[in-house]
Amino acid sequence: ASCVQHRLVVRDASSLQLLQLYTCLDQIQYIEWSSDSLFILCALYKRGIVQVWSLEQPAWHCRIDEGSAGLVASCWSPDGRHILNTTEFHLRITVWSLCTKSVSYIKYPKACQQGVVFTKDGRYMAVAERRDCKDFISIFVCSNWQLLRHFDTETQDLSGIEWAPNGCVLAAWDTCLEYKVLLYSLDGRLLSSFRAYEWPLGVKSVAWSPSSQFLAIGSFDEKVRILNHVTWKKITELDHPATVASKKTIVYKEVEKSPTVDTERLSFPPTRELASSLFSTQSKYDISQVPVSLQYVKPVADRANPKVGVGMLAFSADNCFLATKNDNIPNAVWIWDIRKLKLSVVLEQLCTIQCFQWDPCQPRLAVCTGTSRVYLWSPAGCMVVQVPGEGDFQIVSLSWHSSGDSMVLLSKDNFCVCYLEREEV
Amino acid sequence: MGDWRTITVPVLSSDSKNILSYTSEKKTSPTSMNSQVLRLSLPSSKNMHSFFSAFCTEENLEQSISYIDRELTTLGFPSIYAESKGRELNLVSIINCMNELLVLQHKNLRAQEEAEMQHMKLGSDMDHLQNCYAKLKEQLELSKREVVGLQERDRQLQSKNRNLHQLLKNEKDEVQKLQNIISSRATQYNHDMKRKEREYNKLKERLHQLVMNKKDKKIAMEILNCVGRADGKRGAWRTDKTEARNEEEMYKVLLSDYEQRQKQLLLENAELKKVLQQMKKDIISLLPPQKQKPKEKSEDGLVLSDQEEDIGDLNKENMWELSCETVREQLTNSIRKQWRMLKNHVEKLDNQVSRGHSGALNEKDVISREDHELETEKLELEIQQCKEMIKTQQQLLQQQLTCDDDTTLLLQDCYLLEERERLQEEWRLFREQKRNFEKERKSFTEAAIRLGLERKAFEEDRGTWLKHQFLTMTADCNNPNATTPSSEPDIRLVKSASRQRKPPSLLSTPISAEPCQTSQYIAQNSVASEKPTADNMPNLWVESDDKEETE
User: Fold this and answer.
1) Does B434 lie at the interface with A, CB-CB under 8 angstroms?
2) Residue B123 above 90 pLDDT?
């Protein structure tokens, strides 16, 4: 599904054939599929309206109007029948039910980067709240929206919460002014609290491993600390120095290949293909000899939210690799082998990394840097895939299909689907 | 001529010019010879003649001779004059004196040479030493200067060090101050933040109120038709039951997660324990048998064996009981001990190897590598031989087991012979016993025959006695005093019976003490009218015996 202005276009994933076309009232800011893929919600933040469309019954429609309360965020509940709208200024979260037309309110939600999280099995929802200058977490049962637990957290300013994939532990971390990660059990007990250091800027990103065994915490001091689920103590620190010196890491460097031009075939006026091939640069990967010094960007000292520290963390689906990005070294992706807790690969790109995502089935990482190329890495090697086409297609973000066979590459105005062929065994 | 004053002993000098001057002077003034020092030098061939002519000329011959004589005598040489104090010169003595003088001269020359050599050597040594001295002095100077320089540097460095320490302290203080400042600012910011947040909350509340109060009709949900729930169930009312159920479900989820984790941990634990046990066994097997400190080691060994037994027992028992503290501690402690022992052993071996390399083979325990290798070779040879022997023995055994029929038959025959001999023995015994039994039977039959005869006789006697008695009774009717004779015949009969019985008893074999008794018993039996049965047997025997007798 994709939206263009005020139209919602639904296509088939394997053939990109147009299936449905819906028209909304105003420009759509956000769309989301329901968990059973039967409905799509389109949020129009400016108007404060959420429109829901059904795939099975194109005639069915639903419109939720928040009115003067305004709309800041909207999302589905895991059962696919409730919509949670966050009103402006985070006044409240309204839970609209599509089955019963009933409404529930959650008061005092917290305005933080990740305030509402659902467990993987969709049973419980944790909401970060703030009352009287104190942070609280409420755990709701998604089936009937009953409050299960409500407890306060020892944080200054709760910045985010995340469920472990097994649904039994909730990680909560404090604002970047204070390094504090708290771990709560499902029933609200504080299991453990982790604090690496006191004064420098703290936690930037957090990720759970798919087996819930490890919690990776990326912080502003360019390090990732990994906690284990048995003792909740740090088992290792992964550092991101500007010089990679270890002999065992492979450094792939993206090198530009100058395009070969067949001077004989030049014709006037130059055809489009020729023009594009002249101006588009090919690139490939080269293995650089260790030690390699990476491009280091010194952060501006007196600005808030500096581009320092580990800003992106992702575990691979098989729990074997961890991909990180250090914002100081914005062109490199660091891939760590979790079994050995060592740096195994560094991908050095020509441009700043915009986004990377692991394949949900295999240990395959797709990286995009804002160029028209998508980079794939797997333990077997890495490759550069050029998006064919005219003009520039600057990939800003990408998203894998849940089967791992294809992925969507998004640029500002367009998107394309990249299909990966399965190897014939 | 001038007066001869004592001439001083001339100083050796290599200056021939002086001699020339002297000789020239000599000619001018002979008296000056007295005051002048005669310089005897190693005469060069040129000045020989002049020198010799300087002392003795034709004029002062006598004086010079007497002078020479005086000198020689003072030196201990014999006089050159002849014995008479005349002017005759003793040529022989002169020659001898000359010879002696020459010898002396040679000796002196040699001594002189040696002295000169020594002098030169000493001179060169002296030079050398002076050079050394000079050099050492220089070096000493240099080192003194160096020392001074180093001292200076040391002082500088120390002062630098002190400065740096001071700086460090200052920096630390500054850092502390800054931290304090940061913390105070942080608290201030927090306070301000809280204040602002409260304001903000108030605004939000106000806004919220306003929004809610407006009764905005727009806040509504327009839906075409209600959609069924994803799982098809109906909505439930919020009741206490549902709350309780929620709690239950939550706890169930948590518990299942914990159980899963615990299972995993148990599995891990069990595996690790297995590995530890194996390691322990391996370590124990690696360690050599302890000879030194038997007490301690045996105690350890006993303790260990106890522990091992305990752990072995526990292993055999329920596995889950191994999770208790004491057993875990025991296992880890025992492994630590064993590991320490192994470490010590390896260290000892290392020391031995290092000592062996350095060549100190004094200790008995140390075996040099070559010896060790030789021994290992020997052992290997032995092992080979033993193996071969075992192989051959096995082959032989195999042959024996699967050998051909002759040998088996022989073997079997051997066994049979043994058995036969045994059986023969038994047969012999059996036959002996049979013979004994026969003998006894014979005696029995004889006794029985005799008994029968005796019974017959007894019956006959009884009959006669009764007849007699009857006759006497009828006779005694006529005669009333016949009571006593009735007893007599009894007695006589008894006596006769006994008498009759006695000889057969005498005749019978001594073994027949019993047969007598038996015959009496048989006799009684027969009297007791058990004749037919009792007599059957003896009759049979009697018959057979009679048959025998008749035969």
Assistant:
1) no
2) yes
